[in-house]
Amino acid sequence: MSRLIALSLLLLPAPVFGQSPAKYADVIAALEQLIERERLDAGMPGLSVAIVEDQTIIWAKGFGHANLARTRPATPDTVYRVGSVSQLFTDIAVLQLVEEGKIELDAPVTKYLADFKPANPSSKPITLRQLMAHRSGLVREPPDGSYFDAEQPSLEKTIASLNGRPVVYQPGTTTKYSNAGIAVVGLVVEKVDGRPYAKAIRERVVAPLEMTSSDFEPTAAVKAKLAEGLMWTYHGREFVAPTFELGESPAGSMYSTATDLARLLSALFARGKGSKGPILKPETLREMLTPQFEKREVSERFGLGIAIGKLNHAERIGHAGAIYGFSTELAFLSAEKVGVVVIANKGGTNPATRRIADLALRHFLAGRPGWPMPSSSDPPKPASRDLARKLAGKYGPAPSHELIEMNGGLYYLPPAGGLLVEVQQAGKEFVLGGSAGSGDRLTCDGTTLKIKGSLPITAYWARQLEGPPAEPNRLVRGVIGEYGPDHNVLTILEKDGQLYALIEWLFLYPLEYETSDSYKFPADAGLYHGERIVFKRDDTGKAITLRAGGVLFRRRVVDGEDGKTFRIKPQRPVEELRKEAAAAKPPEEKGDFRKADLVELTSLDATIKTELRYASDNNFMGTPLYPPTARAYMQRPAAEAVARVNKSLAERGYGLWVFDAYRPWAVTKVFWEATPEKMRMFVADPSKGSRHNRGCAVDLTLYELKSGKPVEMVSGFDEFSDRAYPNYWGGTSRQRWHRELLRHAMEDEGFTVYEAEWWHFDYKDWKSYEIGNQSFEELGQRRKDAKKDKE
What CA dihedral angle connects 547, 548, 554 and 558, to 10 degrees? Predict the structure, then answer.
C-alpha cells in the first residue's frame, strides 16, 4: 500500500450513526409511508431499514413487529437471520488471508482441502476464485448440511458429503449460484486460519467493524433481540420458521441487524476501512467489486462474493439473503456512496425487500444528475375475483405465460416457472406486486398479454373452455406427491401434461423428461438450473425417494392418499365426549336472526347425491356421530342455491355429491374436543359455533352423471393436510380442474370456499341464522309431521 493511501485511510472519519440530516426530512417522510405500504402489501410482520451515505447512517427505522404475536416492535437494532448476506463476510475473510499471503485465489482448492474430492471429470481444477464468483460448477446444495437438513452436521461433514458428487458444469464455464461452494470457502477459512469458522469471522471481520449484535452463532446476546420468522405457502398456510443452524453455515447462518450491516457498507465506502481499522486493502476491495468472469455488458454479474447489476445508469452492488422466515437485501451504489439495508421477518419475500431497497435508493438520490424525481401515483390494489376469473388463462404457445385466479385474486406464472406473483391493478395497467413481485408492469384485456413492452401474445384459454385435462399415465402418477421434511416440503405435481417441482415452498419449475425416472430442471433459469431430479421407485412403480441435485428427499406418508379415509386418534374416548356435549349448551347469541327453515336438499333436486359420512364410520373420527336416519338439511335460501349449482353443473355432465350439511352444535363440540390442537384449523370452535350449525354450510364434491362415480380430487374429504387446501398446488391438472370447476360453480351462487378445505362451502347469509342444536331425530319427526299435515 502506498504511503498516501495509508494516510488517507487514517484520516477517514468513523461511521456516525443515528443522524437524520434535515435536507432529507421530506424524503424520509415519504419513504416511511411507502415502505409501510409495501410491508403490508407483502404481509411482512416486521421490517428494519437503514440508509447509509458514506460514513453516516442518515436514517434507520423499524416497521411492524419483531414477533409473530405482534407485541414487540421491530427496531433498527432488531436481530434477524440474514441468509446469504453471510457470504460477504466469508469472502472478506478469504481475501484477508490472500493479503496475508496464506491463500492464492487461483490455486486448486485442494491445496487447502486435500480431502475435497467431488467428481470432476474436467482437467480444470476448482479454485477459490471460481467458488467465490459462483463458477465452480458445484451443485447448489450439498447432500449433508444443506438448506433442507435439520440435523446440523459440522461444516467438515457437510463438505465431505460433496465427495463423489458430480459437478453440474465444468469449473469456470458457467455461472451457477452454489451455497455448497461458499461452504467450501468457509472451510478453507477455518483450516487456514486455524480457528473454528464462526470465531475466525467474528475476530477477523465482525469485531473490527464493531458489529456488536452480529454473529454466526445464536449466542445469548443474539437471541435476546432476535426476531421470529414467518413462513408461508401459496395455498394459504402460515407457520413459525424453523430455527436450526445450517451445516453450510458460511453460506447463510449469520445473525445481524440493519444498523450493523450499515457499518459494513460504511467500511466499503471508506475503501475497506472499518471503525477500528482496515478490514481490506483498497486494491483488494477493488478486486472484490470487479466482475470476475462475465463481460461488463452482462446485466447481472458476480465479483468475489458479491452481485453486480444496474439501477438506472448506476452500478448497483450488493447481495440478497434468504433463510427460513427471513428476507434481506443489502445494496449500494459505490459512485454515489449511498447504500441501503432492508431485512424482513417473512421468508420468500426477497423480491419485495429488493423493491423496497431500490425505492429507497431512488428517493434518496432523486434530483441528482441522472436521477429523476419519483413519480407519485395511487397505490396498486388487488384484482377483484371477477376480473381475475375473466383474465385467467394461458397466453402464447407452450411454454406459455399464465394468469391464474387464486385466493380471490390474480397471479402470474412465467414460462420458465419460478415464483408465483400477485397481479395488482394500477390504473389501466397491472403491476407485479405482493410478496414476490418485482414491480414490473403488464397489460391484459383477456385476449392479449403484454409485459414490459414485449410484443402482444395471443391468448389461449384453458380454463373451462374444454373438457377436463387428460389423466397422466401410470409412470407419472407414480411420482406425484410430497417429499422431504415438514419444514420444507418438495411437491411433485403434473401440470399441462408435464411434471413440475414446487421446491422450497415457493419455486415452481417445469421438469424436462430424460427417462421415466430422471428429469432436468430448467436449463437456463431458476435456483437449480443444470441439475436433475432422479426418482427411485418401489415394486409397484410408486416413487419412494427423489434426489434433487445433491439432496435426498424421502416420500412423505400422507394419511388419506390412495383413496383411504384420513383418521385422527381422538384425544379422549368418543362416548365420554358425547355425554359432555349432550349436557352442554351452545353459546348464547344476541341479534335479529331469521327464523330457521331447514330443508332437505334432495327434496329440491333428487339428482343431488348424499352420503352423510358422519352417519357411518367412514370419517376422520372413525365412528358414527349421526344416526343412520340423518339427512342433508340446509336453510332454504342456501338449499335452493345448492340446487341451482347442481342444475348448472348438469349441463357439463356433473352433479353434486354431498357429504355433510346441517350439523348439530353438540357434534361440533365433540369434534373440537377430540381433535389434537395442531389440527384444529380443520374443525370449528364450539365457543363460536360452526356455519354447519347454522344450516348454511355444505361439504360436497362432484360426480359424473354418466358413470355415477365421484370425481377424483387432490385430497380426500376430511383430510387434515395441506392437500385439503383449495389452492394447494399438488396433484394432477385434472384433479385441480375439477376442484376449480366446483369452486366456481358454488361461488356463482353465493358460496365461499373455506380456506383449508376444498369441499367446504359457506353460504353468504350464514350470519343471519342462529347456532342450531336440533338433533336429526327431531328434524326427522318435524318432516314427518309436516308431511301428515299436507295429507
Answer: -140
3-state secondary structure 723-734: HHCCCCCCCCHH
Q: Return the biggest CA–CA distance within the chain.
A: 112
Q: What is the C-alpha separation between 584 and 669, in angstroms, rounded?
A: 9
CA dihedral 525, 255, 45, 20 (to 10 degrees): -100
Distance CA 620, CA 667 (A): 13
Cell numbers that stand for 751 in this block = 358460496
Residue ranges in 571-704 assigned as alpha helix (H): 574-583, 601-604, 636-650, 665-674
Q: Where are the beta strands (DSSP E) in 246-346?
A: 255-256, 273-274, 277-278, 301-302, 307-311, 314-323, 326-333, 338-344
**Which class for 547: exposed (0-12), middle (13-18), buried (19 or more C-beta within 10 A)?**
middle
pLDDT band at 5 (very low <50, low <70, confident <90, very high): very low
Coil, strand, or helix at residue 679? Answer: helix
> Within 13 Å and on the Cβ side, how many CA atoms surround 642?
37
pLDDT-derived band at 3, boundaries 50, 70, 90: very low
Q: What is the mean pLDDT of residues 257-280?
A: 95
**What is the C-alpha to C-alpha distance for residues 345 and 44, in angstroms, rounded to an integer?**
7
CA-wise closest residue to 394 among 458, 478, 482: 458
**Residue 18 pLDDT exceeds 60:** no
Does residue 775 carry a pLDDT above 60?
A: yes
| 692 CB neighbour count, 10 Å cutoff | 26
Burial of 398 (C-beta count, 10 Å sphere; 0-12/13-18/19+): exposed
Could you give the strand order of the β-sheet that contains 418-419, starting from the edge strand earlier in sequence?
418-419, 507-510, 498-503, 490-495, 481-483
List, for residues 99-135, the tens digit of each pLDDT value: 999 999 999 999 999 999 999 999 899 999 999 999 9
pTM of the model: 0.93
Question: Rounded to the nearest 5°, which phi and psi values hold at 517?
Answer: -120, 5
